[in-house]
Each structure stands twice: as C-alpha cells, then as structure tokens.
Design a protein that fits this description.
The structure holds 2 protein chains of 2 kinds.
Chain A: H1 2-32, H2 39-57, H3 61-83, H4 93-116, E1 131-134, E2 137-140, H5 141-163, H6 165-175, H7 177-182, H8 187-212, H9 220-234, H10 239-259, H11 265-279
Antiparallel strand pairs in A: 1-2
Helix pairs in contact in A: 1-5, 1-8, 1-9, 1-10, 2-3, 2-4, 2-8, 2-9, 3-8, 5-6, 5-8, 6-8, 9-10, 9-11, 10-11
Chain B: H1 2-12, H2 24-47, H3 57-81, H4 92-109, H5 113-135, H6 141-160, E1 170-171, H7 184-205, H8 208-218, H9 220-225, H10 230-256, E2 258-259, H11 261-264, H12 267-280, H13 286-305, H14 309-326, H15 330-337
Antiparallel strand pairs in B: 1-2
Helix pairs in contact in B: 1-8, 3-7, 3-10, 3-12, 3-13, 4-5, 4-10, 5-10, 7-10, 8-10, 12-13, 12-14, 12-15, 13-15
Classes of the chains: A mainly alpha, B mainly alpha.
Chain lengths: 291, 348
C-alpha cells in the first residue's frame, strides 16, 4: 500500500509538469484552432536555452525559467505574426496549422541537432539529487520544485485569462471567434498574444524539463505524442481538461510502469487516446462538436 | 446522386477546370503529348538497368528504387490525404506492418517477398480498416492526432514484441540473385508498385468514387446531405491507401535484408509521404510523382554535397513551411492555377 501511494505521489509530481507542458498547446487550440505539433520542439528549445544560461553564467534553471518567459513570448508573437496570417481564411485552417507546425518541428529539430548536437543534456542544480522525506514517503526535491513552478505558472495563466482585459478577449475568442470580432475584440491581437503566451509556457516548461529529464533534439516527438494524448483526453482547448488529463495519465502510467514494465508506460497515453476517441471523441471537458 | 455531388463540387471548388469545358481538339492534343511523354519516360526507365556500363550503376539503380518506392507511398497517401483532406501522419504504419509480415513469412516459411507482397498489402489494408473504425470517429485535427497515436502504439508494440525481434529487429536471408544483377529485380518490382499506385490514383481521380472523396474533402456535411455514406467512402479510401504501402514495405524489407522498428515506424518516414504529396500537389495524379522524385533527388544531392543529415531535416521542414504558405496547391496545383501546367503533367 505504501509503495502504491509512493508511486501515485511520483505520478502526481510528473503530471503537474505535464500539465504545464500541455497548457500552451491546449491554449493555442482553444483560442485559434492551432494544433502546434512543434510545441514540444519549442519545449526542448526552452530546455537548451536554460541549459546554456546555466552552463555559461551558472543561472539556476528555476531563475532561467523567468528569463525564458519574456524571451519566448516575443519569439512566439513574432513567429505568429510572420507565419500565420497567410493561413487565416484557409477553409481547412486547423489541418493547415498541423502541417505548418509539423514542418516547424522538423526545422527546429534539425537546427538544434546541427548547432547543439544530438547528445543527452541535463542541467544539474544542487537540489537535483536531494529529496524530502514525509514519514515513509519521499519526494525528490527537483520534482517538487518543478511542480511548484508549474503550479505558480498555471495559476498565473488562469488569473490572466479570467481577470484581465486581454484575458476576456481570449475567452471571448475561444467561445466564438466571429462573435468576439463583432463585439469589438481585436482577434488578430488576441491571437498574437495567445501565441506568445503559449510559446512562453513552452519555454518555461523547457526550463523545468531541463533538470527533470535528459533531453536531446529528437526527444520532442515522444513528448508531443504524450501531450497530444492528454489534451485529447481532457478535451481539446480546455485548460482544466489538460490539467486533469495530465494528472490522470501520469499517475496511471507511473502505476503501469511500476507494476508491469516501464516499456508499457507510454502505451497508457496512446491507448487512452484511442479509447477516449472511441467512447467520447470530444474528451472529458470538451464541447460537443468542437473537434 | 452523382449529379448532386458534381454540383456541390463545382460550387465549392474553383481551381480545377471542368474537363468538358476545354476545347475537344486541344484536349486531344494534350492527351497525345501526355501519352507520348509518359511512354518515352517509361521505356527509358525500363531499359535503364540494361545499361550496365554506366558509372555508379548500382547507385543509380538504388536511387531509382528509392524514387519508385516513394512515388508508390506518396501516391497511396494521396488517395486519402489528397482527396478527402483527412491527413494521416502515421501512414508508415502500413508500410512497416507489410514489411514485417513478408519478412516473417520469408524467415519461417521461405516464401519470397516478391510473391507475398500482395498479401502484405492485404494485411495492411485490414489494419487500415480496423484503425479506421476508431480514427474516423473524429475529423480535422483530432483525426491527425489519432494517426500519430496509432504510429506510436505500433512503434511501442514492435519494439517489445519477441516475434518481431523487438527493437533489434530481424535479419532476412540474402536474396538469391546473381551478384551483378542484385539490384535489378528490386528496381522492376518497385517500378511495378509505383505504376500500380499511380494507375490506382488515376482510376480514383476519374471515378465516381474519387468524386465522392473530393466531395467529402470540400464539404463533408454537404456531401452527407447529398446522400453519400461518407463513413463508408472514407473507410474504403483509408483501406485502399494502406494497401500499396504494405506491399512496398515487403519489397523494401527484402531489398535491405533486415527489418527494425526504427527504419519503418519513425514519424519522419510518414512525414516524408505527406511532404512529397504536398510539394507535388495534393489531390492530383502527377503531384506525388513529381514530389517524390524531387525530394529524393534533393536528398541525394544534399547528402552528397552537404553531408549533414541534421540540416537535411531542417531543409525538409523549411520546404514544407514554404510550400504551405506560398504554394498551397503544390507544384501541379500552382502551375494549373496560373494556366501554365504542361500537358504531360495534366492527368486530372
């Protein structure tokens, strides 16, 4: 029993980080129907960004996260401004964005592999090997700080969307793009800001990832497959869904990994995706007909 | 029923000119040019392996095999992705499953993959039908995501399955051909596969079935209102586009004498099919052929002169981005839009 609870604790810690990794992805889909296949590639880019800050000036990855946020926001906003207006008005906008970001993912992977090489990297701050003990359970310090960082950012995101003027615009655009435009929301501006925020979240997630997992450029395919499954489970475009999906699947996959074999743990994500498409294609918190 | 679909088609798509609107004598001349150019190319391609004294004979044949392989794969992908707009990013699943199937038959029963390739196609087709049951519950981005998930499920499965040798894969017996003619049988087999795939694409393009697929592609709701059983047509298209990759996978596995999950089930392999079809022109017969030849030749050139595979990957991605943003119709589509499509590319 205590081993079971220990595995659940580790699963929750992991799920909290997955939730942050997925939040930007689901936000982009919710606001502008963009499925950003390159999201995980930008997470890896964020990890490299933090890694080089840590290596060159010894900046702690958690502080590196704060640097990554604005840098990646600007990067995302620029990227959206340059690439996406040409696709607006295309009859199959979502599909086109999948293909476009698929191309971006290859570009990002290829360039990272060329400039940073394909070797495994990881930042190693002092707390990386520490652990807290609570009675008979232990919590790795790195995972704990990562969860904390993830929660702070997710709460900030939630507050931004629910209590700021721009947030109102984002939510209006999520509900109905045309109607939002009619009531005076500058949808283009909202899209640019959302893309920037999505990218900032990817950069921040990358900072956390940099000390949690060894990373290399091609790693992003594995992550994007996991992230896509959990946002489909939660309902594409739903932030709450992404968090619930992330926690559920991370816990289940940790249990599967513990009680069967680690090779089957990724199967949980893809299997869950197929299962949810069979029984409830709109996901847990998705609206009917949204996909 | 077909008339209604035709009406829906002409109302919603604008790029493709209606064939009957073209002056018949012009159409006849264009057809003649088409047939002459195509048969000339075909004869040259058929005779190429006999020209043994050329430089780098084996290399040239190998590039030919690659080009035919990818023509077959991209054309098959096009049947589903090009006409219905349902984009499968995990289409290499069928390619790999076909390869493994024939490899196992060769290892355990000594059956030549040249004979079992059609059977491998049928296995891939059945898998396509099975996967379609789940994936066609969704559309748009969720469909694409489900095809990626299918790919990863199959990857994990083959990575761990003892029958297929896990992640180490299996070695196949070396083909029993004389050394100096080792490449030629594969050359002709892949050429046959490519021809069948292009012929199939042509048949689909000029049939009511293809019309139905295009109707689904331009507006699924309207197609359903017009009385089409869209689910059945999509399933058929998915199965059909899985068949050739299965057969091609069988021959490919034999040609390299081993199978391993990472040569079939990498996402980059599926991406390549999509890239080729899009660069050449989705939903056209000639598009995937041009796209495949171009991408393979570019890859070979960049490997020879640049050497770095990482940059190759980046260039592939950049190419996809540029084509999507500036030439969404691909080479064939963009040329047609400007009225500059040469007759020999006009098979639609």
């Amino acid at each position: 029993m205590s081993q079971f609870l220990q595995v659940v604790i580790l699963g929750v810690l992991l799920g909290g980080v997955y939730a942050l990794m997925a939040s930007g992805l689901t936000l982009l889909f919710g606001v502008m129907r963009v499925v950003n296949i390159a999201h995980a590639a930008f997470i890896v880019l964020g990890a490299f960004f933090t890694f080089f800050l840590w290596e060159s000036i010894g900046l702690d990855p958690l502080l590196g996260m704060l640097v990554a946020l604005p840098v990646f926001f600007v990067f995302g906003a620029l990227l959206y401004r340059i690439l996406f207006p040409r696709l607006e008005g295309s009859p199959r906008f979502s599909e086109m964005t999948v293909l476009l970001t698929f191309g971006l993912a290859f570009m990002a992977e290829g360039l990272m592999a060329y400039f940073f090489t394909g070797i495994f990297r990881q930042t190693a701050p002092s707390y990386q090997v520490d652990a807290f003990r609570f009675g008979s359970f232990f919590v790795p310090a790195a995972q704990f700080y990562a969860l904390l960082g993830s929660m702070v950012l997710l709460v900030a995101l939630w507050a931004f969307i629910n209590f700021t003027h721009t947030g109102y615009g984002i939510r209006a655009t999520m509900q109905n793009r045309t109607a939002a435009q009619i009531v005076g929301v500058d949808v283009r501006r909202v899209s640019i800001i959302s893309f920037g925020v999505g990218m900032a979240l990817a950069g921040a997630a990358g900072a956390l990832v940099s000390f949690l997992f060894p990373f290399f450029p091609a790693r992003h395919w594995q992550w994007i497959a996991i992230l896509l499954s959990l946002i489909v489970l939660g309902g594409l475009g739903s932030l709450k869904g992404a968090v619930v999906g992330a926690l559920t699947l991370a816990v289940v996959s940790s249990l599967v990994s513990q009680y069967t074999s680690p090779v089957w743990s990724p199967m949980v994500f893809y299997g869950a995706l197929f299962l949810i498409l069979l029984v409830r294609p709109q996901g847990l918190f998705g609206k009917q007909g949204r996909i | 029923m077909a008339d209604e679909v035709k009406e829906a088609m002409t109302a919603t798509t604008s790029t493709a000119p209606i064939p009957s609107a073209v002056d018949p004598s012009v159409a006849r001349r264009r057809r003649q040019v088409r047939v002459i150019v195509a048969s000339t190319i075909l004869i040259l391609v058929l005779l190429l392996p006999l020209y043994r004294s050329m430089d780098a004979y084996n290399y040239v044949l190998q590039v030919g095999v690659s080009i035919f392989t990818w023509i077959a794969l991209a054309s098959s992908w096009n049947i589903l992705g090009g006409y219905t707009g349902y984009i499968s990013l995990g289409h290499n699943v069928f390619y790999g499953v076909g390869g493994y199937f024939s490899a196992l038959l060769l290892i355990h029963f000594g059956l030549s993959p040249f004979l079992t390739a059609p059977l491998a196609g049928v296995v891939a087709l059945s898998l396509g039908l099975l996967a379609g049951l789940v994936t066609f519950r969704t559309q748009g981005p969720a469909f694409i995501i489900s095809t990626i998930a299918l790919l990863f499920i199959v990857l994990v499965w083959f990575d761990t399955w003892s029958l297929t040798g896990g992640s180490n894969g299996l070695s196949l017996p070396v083909p029993p051909f004389p050394r100096e003619w080792l490449r030629a049988p594969f050359y002709y087999a892949m050429l046959a596969a490519a021809l069948v795939a292009v012929w199939l694409g042509h048949r689909v393009q000029h049939s009511k079935f293809g019309l139905a697929l295009r109707a689904i592609g331009s507006d699924q709701v309207k197609a359903e209102v017009a009385g089409l059983n869209t689910r059945r047509f999509k399933m058929l298209a998915f199965a059909l586009s899985a068949f050739i990759p299965g057969a091609v996978g069988a021959i490919f596995a034999y040609s390299i004498s081993y199978v391993r999950p990472t040569i079939f089930f990498l996402i980059a392999i599926g991406a390549q099919m999509v890239l080729m079809a899009i660069i050449g022109g989705r939903g056209t017969v000639a598009g995937p052929v041009i796209g495949a030849a171009l991408v393979i030749l570019l890859n070979e050139a960049s490997l020879t002169y640049l050497g770095a595979t990482e940059l190759n990957l980046a260039v592939t991605g950049a190419l996809l981005v540029v084509v999507l943003l500036f030439f969404p119709g691909g080479i064939v589509g963009s040329l047609r839009e400007r009225g500059k499509l040469p007759a020999f590319l006009d098979w639609d």
